[in-house]
Design brief:
The chain has two helices and nine strands; from the N terminus they run H-E-E-H-E-E-E-E-E-E-E. With about 160 residues, the protein is mainly beta. The protein has a five-stranded mixed barrel with strand order 5-6-7-8-9. A two-stranded antiparallel sheet has the order 1-2. Strand 5 and strand 6 form a beta hairpin.
Length: about 160
């Protein structure tokens, strides 16, 4: 029992933030799904709140999408934010394939949601073939071209 009590005190009193550090709080009520901007945030001295574990850093918040509504003055945790989706499932996207100075564009249908840099599956609208690509911008997916095997010179031809 004594060991459990000591462990609880250590867990409850330890902090992810350094003493005297600033924490990010909502400057006003922030709605679920909104993108966080600099003007949406205020900072407080971390001693002003008992909520310390799992707080998101100020720089990590700007440009992120809120998963839930945050009341004015409330701290924002890393679990409250996500990278905003630039492509939504079933959205028509431009698939780009670039190789050797040549770029080919085709229309495809996104089979998954994703943010910048996320790899998703896309179905070519003409061939119905499913390929994988990386989201580069809203509505744009870079598809890695298939590389044909190289046949060594003089190999049986």
């Amino acid at each position: 029992m004594k060991r459990q009590l000591i462990a609880m005190v250590i867990l409850c009193c330890s902090s992810g933030a350094a003493h005297g550090a600033q924490i990010s709080v909502a400057a006003h009520t922030l709605e679920r799904g909104s993108i966080v901007s600099d003007s949406d945030l205020d900072t407080l001295d971390e001693s002003a709140t008992s909520h310390r574990y799992g707080l998101a850093e100020y720089a990590a918040l700007v440009g992120k999408e809120l998963k839930r509504t945050i009341a004015s003055g409330q701290p924002i945790y890393s679990t409250d934010i996500k990278t905003p989706d630039l492509v939504k499932r079933d959205e028509l996207v431009t698939m780009l394939v670039a190789r050797g100075g040549m770029t080919i564009a085709a229309t495809g249908k996104a089979l998954e949601n994703g943010g910048k840099g996320t790899h998703i599956r896309v179905q070519n609208m003409v061939s119905k073939q499913i390929v994988e690509g990386e989201i580069a911008a809203p509505g744009t997916v870079l598809v890695t071209p298939l590389v044909a095997p190289q046949i060594p010179a003089g190999y049986g031809l």
